[in-house]
């Protein structure tokens, strides 16, 4: 430990941290290139070639030119994921689409007219529906 001073250890840790952050940023940019639905094939290929062949310049140019849209695409992706999750939960729970109280009352009324419900059952269901 004497042959590697503490200051050199801090510099090594700093460079390692910057290296890891660089790869994180590079993967984030590559992911954003493929996530963007407005950017078509040749545009994606061009940005990918630029980012992979000239990584530092390519990523910085990408962030300058298209950086503002990255957050919008992230938010849209999160909203789409949330909606898909909510739809899955509703489907798994067996909860169908919600009907308005007027539709439910009409359905109860038609069941009563057919004779499937008695007046007492109709009144209880109606009261439950309206409260």
Number of distinct helices: 5
Question: Count of DSSP E strands?
Answer: 0
How would you state the average pLDDT, rounded? 87
Given the C-alpha coordinates, what overall shape results?
elongated
Helix content: over 70%
The helix-and-strand class reads mainly alpha
Rg result: 30 Å
Characterize the main sheet.
none
Share in β-strands: under 5%
Encode the helix/strand succession as letters: HHHHH
List low-confidence stretches. none
Terminal CA distance: 75 Å
Any chance you could write out the topology, listing elements then pairs?
Blueprint: H1 6-35, H2 41-53, H3 55-93, H4 101-114, H5 119-130
Notes on the structure:
It is built from 5 helices and no strands. The protein has helices at 6-35, 41-53, 55-93, 101-114, 119-130. Helix 1 (6-35) runs antiparallel to helix 2 (41-53), helix 2 (41-53) packs across helix 3 (55-93) and helix 4 runs antiparallel to helix 5. The radius of gyration is 30 Å and the shape is elongated.
């Amino acid at each position: 430990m004497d042959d590697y001073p503490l200051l050199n250890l801090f510099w090594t840790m700093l460079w390692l941290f910057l290296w890891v952050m660089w790869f994180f940023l590079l993967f984030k940019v590559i992911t954003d290139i493929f996530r963007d639905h407005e950017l078509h094939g040749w545009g994606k290929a061009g940005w990918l070639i630029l980012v992979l062949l000239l990584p530092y310049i390519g990523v910085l140019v990408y962030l300058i030119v298209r950086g503002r849209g990255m957050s919008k695409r992230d938010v849209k992706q999160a909203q789409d994921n949330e909606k898909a999750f909510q739809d899955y939960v509703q489907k798994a729970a067996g909860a169908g689409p919600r009907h308005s109280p007027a539709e439910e009352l009409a359905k109860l009324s038609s069941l009563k007219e057919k004779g499937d419900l008695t007046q007492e059952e109709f009144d209880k269901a109606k009261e439950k529906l309206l409260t």
